[in-house]
Amino acid sequence: MSQKTLIAPTIDDIRAAARIIYGAVEHTPTRHSDTLSRITGAEIHLKFENLQYTASFKERGALNKLLSLTDDQKKRGVAAMSAGNHAQGVAYHGGRLGIPVTIVMPQGTPFTKVKHTKDFGANVVLEGATLTESFARATAIANAQGLTFVHPYDDPAVIAGQGTVALEMLADAEEPLDTLVVPIGGGGLISGIAIAAKAINPAIEIIGVQTRAYPSMFDVFKQANLPSAGQTIAEGIAVKEPGMLTREIVRANVKDILLVDEVQIEKALAALLEIEKTVVEGAGAAAYAAVAEHKERFAGRKVGIVLSGGNIDMRLLSNVILRELSREGRIVSLEVMIEDRPGLLARIATLVGEAGGNILEVSHNRMMTDTPVKSAYLGMVVEARDAGHAEEIRSCLRDAGFTLRV
Fold first, then answer.
1. What average pLDDT does the chain have?
2. Do 46 and 280 form a contact (C-beta atoms < 8 A)?
3. Taking the model in full, what pTM does it have?
4. Secondary structure letter of residue 134 according to DSSP
5. Sequence spans of domains, the chain
């Protein structure tokens, strides 16, 4: 599809998409969060797109695009490239509709997303270190086999499908929203949401969020030139080149784009898990991360936040939880210099227990050359209530005459 044929969808297109995809995709809830509102100083309303069947908003646009195909196109099949969520949306609804699907995914795609895409019946090709390389392979396959290429974001039918998120969100919120905060990868979601929301309420502000590691739409929007590189927990929005159509829609409808770093995303992910009891992936946590980081900007406003997806690898999720517990001082690593003789381990364990700590792991290191040969370092991983309690445990050990290594 050439750029000249790309015409932005209208509110009528988005409403038409809502009618034809209704029932095949979830009308996900929009809920007010009292706790997150108190934390941020804004009235926070969460749109739970992580509760879709494929755990992502992507199936809205994928289904709308598939339903727009001719009978011949459906028979021939489709090809797509994706890091996971678009792949699952196309694969799932392609399988439902009897449309053959080939998906090219980057080699570093999380295992869970590859597995789910295959489970939905798609032919998965793992090729390319980046989405750009996967895109080249997917378009080559489509051209060679006469397949319709289903772009993950730079397609009017896909954008219209994603815009149905805003129709539901604005209708379901407990109070009129004046700000919507949306994660940005290639720009399909925020483009559809912006078109729909602005048509309903021209005064509403649309704020985009990108990971600092991949600020592609930020660069276009701000005329900046920040580098895009490295690993990110938000691989769903790790897009080096935004769409040609989506960048124009964003320029015309979006108020601002904010950047968040990896620690902010991890903190947001952990907060949503602990407070809202909902699992989101890195990209899905990005919008809340921006609001939590820029409280002064959103204070007093009625903010809708899109939790765009929940497809996160379980091992990665466990790492995020442990890292956040460590940052909060709820899990601490201690190294105590001790004489290497019987009884001291029991003495230290008693002191930690009396201080209210829970020992999770214990190890001895006798190979440190900066200590006497009859000494050792006792390593402990200890669970505490919070950072203050962790310091109480350290003080208890110091007061008993033990030396802690920083």
1. 93
2. no
3. 0.90
4. H
5. 3-56+156-323, 58-149, 330-404
How far apart, in whole angstroms, are the C-alpha atoms of residue 312 and residue 110? 8
* Calpha distance 308→211 (Å, rounded): 14
| Pair 183, 239: CB distance under 8 Å | no
Give the mean pLDDT of 333-344.
Answer: 86
Q: What fold does the segment set 58-149 form as a domain?
A: Rossmann fold (3.40.50)
Secondary structure (DSSP) of 259-311:
EE-HHHHHHHHHHHHHHH-----HHHHHHHHHHHHTHHHHTT-EEEEEE-B--
Distance CA 160, CA 86 (A): 15
Tokens at 138, concatenated: 């997917």
Chain Cα centroid distance, residue 329: 24
- Residue 209: closest CA among 297, 131, 273: 297
Residue type, 273: L
Q: Is the pLDDT of residue 24 over 50?
A: yes
With bands split at pLDDT 50, 70 and 90, how would you rate the model's confidence at 365?
A: confident
SS3 220: helix
Alpha-carbon distance of 316 to 365, in angstroms, equals 29
pLDDT(170) > 60: yes
- Position 66 scores a pLDDT of 98
Q: Same CATH topology for 58-149 and 330-404?
A: no
Mean pLDDT of 1-30: 89
CATH code: domain 330-404 is 3.30.70.260
Residue located via tokens 């604005």 = 170
Residue-wise pLDDT tens digits, 372-396 = 666 788 899 999 999 999 999 999 9
36, 45, 79, 153, 300 from 177: Cα distances, Å? 16, 8, 37, 25, 11
CA dist., res. 130 & res. 188, Å (int)? 19
Dihedrals φ, ψ of 352, to 5°?
Answer: -65, -45
Which of the residues are catalytic?
58, 308
Of 105, 111, 100, nearest to 131 (Cα)?
105
